[in-house]
Structure formats: structure tokens, C-alpha cells
Batch of 2 targets.
Target 1
Amino acid sequence: MYSFIKPLLFKIEPETAHNIAIKSLKLNCFPSSFFKIENEELLKIKLFGKTFSNPIGLAAGFDKSAEVYNTIFKFGFGFVEVGTVTPLKQYGNSKPRVFRLENDEALINRLGFNNDGSEVIYDRILSNPPNGILGVNIGPNKDTKIQENDFLLCLKKFVNIADYITINISSPNTEKLRSFHDDQKLISLIKLVNLEKKNLKSQTPILIKISPDIDENLVEKIAEIVLENYISALIITNTSNASRENLTDSKKKEPGGLSGKPIEEISNNLIKKFYKALKGQIPIIGVGGVDSGKSAYKKILSGASLIQLYTGMIYKGPQIIKNIKIDLIDQLKNDGVKNFSDVVGQNSLSKF
């Protein structure tokens, strides 16, 4: 069905098409039976106290204001992450701010954390309990003077209704946000978050989302910091504001974060480095360029225990989740593997 709809959607400006998709999903008329598969138990995994029916999740950025996550669960995702959520409602950057690079199977966005704000989103989740594992991705408002305070405000708001909370320090579209990759700023932020979490008597897992553009010399230091400060997982990676040299689409020079196929190997290489540095003590959620069973399996072999996608679904449609899971199960059976977690980080060549 999506193959018929896609040409029409792709004639529409990307953000308008996205808004149409959100409105359509609100109708909640998609039968979950259409997306079910056999032998999904091979894909089950338990991480940071949560049992995931499968490792394929929807990355933050699609359902920014937590409007349609329960419809999205019907597509067969093992988990969904909403946001990025800021304390106050935020329009974001001026339009146009989303660009399709069809020749490169990619997107560039400079949305700037547009969302309905923490109060509205909290009430929305509270009144519509999630039918699966729901993560909330949080960040600071554009004009805030002390970004750390905004993280704490959102943490307080969502800590008791989210299955996990992601600290987003990696968007390229919010000024000074990526400076939290600096070791001293990162230590300070994590300590503040952990202290607030302790005061709230919460056991909610805290995750951190990493930029693909960091200096590789930072990998060991960041790994050391998160190991010492009880972070539950790392999400690797966010979008890239570099990596334009091999693109062919005419819109490649638009400023903003690049996602999709062009950052697949960048993400995989960084996952491998972090997997080695973390020594298996903290799980990794791999993001970037996932659009098939093959690309998902590469992430797993590189060291990812869970996978997230977004741009791949824009290009391939919601059927992509079912197809990825079927391909992964076939691969595991061919390899004689009982559960995909047994091959996490093997870095061997896929047989696809």
C-alpha cells in the first residue's frame, strides 16, 4: 500500500507530509494483525530491567509530541521513543527546515526541538497509557539560559511515567548542546541528573544519545564517565552536521542534521568503538541508516543490543519493521543462533 502512497507524499513538502502522516495515524485504523510475524520470540531481549519483544524501535523525532505512539506500536516496534520534549512549548527553527535527499536515501532537518512542551505531553501520556515500552527523549528550550536546569525539569516531569529517559546532548540544531560531550560538562550533567533521580526515589533508566561527529579520542573518556555514573545505555548516534562529501542530491548543503543511509557506516564504526570501550557493561542502541534486515544485523554485529530507525521508515513505509524482523529471524535460524543477543558485537560479516 505504501508504494502507492509514497509518490504522492513525496510530492508534498516533507514537514507537511509528516503532519499528514501524524493526522492519519491518529485515526488508529491500522490492524496490528497485518504486522504480526511468527517466531518473534527469537528476537526477545531483556535490558536495564525491561523486556523488549524485539530489538527494533522508533527513534525520537517522529512522534515529537507523543501523539500517536500507540498506533505506532501496532506496526510491530519493540519500543518507541517520543520527543525531543522541552520544558516549554517550542515552535523550533524557521521553515523550511526538513529536506529529502532522495538520491541519497537521506533527510536533513534543522527542526530545533519543535514540540508541545512537557506539561501537554505529560498529560497526553498519562491519559493514554502506552501499549509497549515508551522512552521519552528530553532536551533544553532554545532560549533557556541554563540548559542543565531544563534537563532536570523534564526529568522530574516524566520520571514516573516513562520506561526510560534519554538525555539528548547530540542534536546539531540547538546551540551549545553538543558541548556536553566535553568530559567535565558531561560529568557535571550526569551527576545533577543522578542526584535528582535519587531525590525522586526513581529507578527509571537514564540513557544518553551521542553525536556521530565527536572526535574519536572522546570515545574512551565518555565510556569511562558513563560506566562510573550508572548510565543504563547509550544511543549511538544522532544526526550528523558533517558527512556531506559523498552525497549527490542537490540539497546536500542545507544546514542541519543528516540522517539515513549516508551515516550508516559512520554510526556502525562508532558503535564498534564504544562496544569495545564499554566492555559489554552498558548496552548500546544503534541508530543510523537502518532500512533492512541486513543493515539491522550489521548494527547488532557491531555491538548494538537494540536498534532504532526513522528515516528508513520514511523511505520504505511501516512494512519495514515486519520485513526487518522476518529477515533477522531467517538469519538467526540460518546461523543456528537461538537469540540475536548471542551475536551482539561479533563484528563478523553478515551472510545476507
Target 2
Amino acid sequence: MCFNASLAQSADKLKRLFYADIDSSRLEQIYFMSAFALPYWPVLKSEDYRNFQFLTWGLIPHWEKNMEAARNIRLKTLNARFETLHERVSYRAPADYKRCAVVVDGYFEWQELNGKKYPYYLSLPRKKPFLLAGLWDRWVNRVNGQTLETFSVVTTRARGIAEQIHNTKKRMPFILDESSAALWLDRHNVFADIQDRLNPSWEDLRAHRVSNLLTSRTQKTNVPEVQEEIP
């Protein structure tokens, strides 16, 4: 799955790579962040893929009736399985009309060996930022009128080095190359029409072992050291 990611890049670099504007004042250096913290994250919506917008990780379907229900569901919608997007009521409409791309420069996953789990950091060469397929939705609190825009990261069957690392559930985020991103972010495409034409990118992924710092409850985890390679 994809519950832990990083994005420690400048606004200028993101603008150059993705031809999209971004509010640099809202962009933080994220070396490690858990989706369970429900962080704000820059994404490109299919309705406006020339501007990064900051949405909260953990999708709240627009039809949820109250804040309690919204809080309960969002920790269950951090990820959405590509294979069953049209089978889940939370994702069916967003898969057609509210797709997005989530920008990261790496993510963390655990490998299980002999009953123990070891953390790894997966990224592209030189930590080049890349896009993950995502879904978003807009929810309005009927009590106070507050609007929340939230998202979920789409996952798929792990391939290549991602399969070697995540060797239990064997899942990985759906990484979008340039052609898949164009299909995914075209708001005129419904999911059924592009599903078989979308292929996750994985060939350039690299992975290295990192320390258990990212699971510390006493030390800061959003620091560059969390990504450092260890033997």
C-alpha cells in the first residue's frame, strides 16, 4: 500500500517538471509523512491540471451526512485499489469525474524477512518527483458549511523492485508516466474507457534500506536522516 511518502522539492522544480503553478508559501519540505496524519498535499486535479492544489489525504465521499461519519471513513480511504474502483461506492463517481495526480519524490515500504519487517525508501534516480494516480472528492459539512477537499492514492499490483520490497501484500502506488498521466487527467475520459490503456510505471524505481527512525515516537521523523541509506 502507500501510506508513507515524501516531497522535499522546490516550487520552481515542480513548476518546471509538470508545467503547473504552485503556491510556494504552502509547500513544505516533507521527508517523511504518514497518511494517517491526514496531511495537506499538492495534487493536480483533472479539472485544472495546470495548478497544484492542496488537498487533505483521506478521501471523504461527498454523500457522507455528518462529521462523525466523515472522520470514520477517511482513515479507510487513504488508498483505493485500481482493480475495484468501480465496485466501491466511495470511488465509483470520483473514478469517472474527479481524478487527480498526487506528486511525491518517494515513498516508504516494509519488507518482511524471517518474521521481521525492514523499512525501505523507494524513489526515482536523483529523487526526481513523480505522479501517483489519485481520486478526490468535495465534502460540505451541513452544520457549519465548511468545505473539505480530500483525496486517496490509487494502488495496483506491485511489480519489479516494489514487489520484492512489499513482499507480503504486494501492492504499490499507481505511478503515472507521461502518457498515462495525460489519460488520467483528461476529464473527458470515463474510467471504463481508459482502464485497459493505463499502465503503471515501475521500471525506474530504486530502493534502499533505511533506519527505523521513521517509526520513532520520541524523535522527529520529518528530517532528511529518515531517508538515509543504511547497510
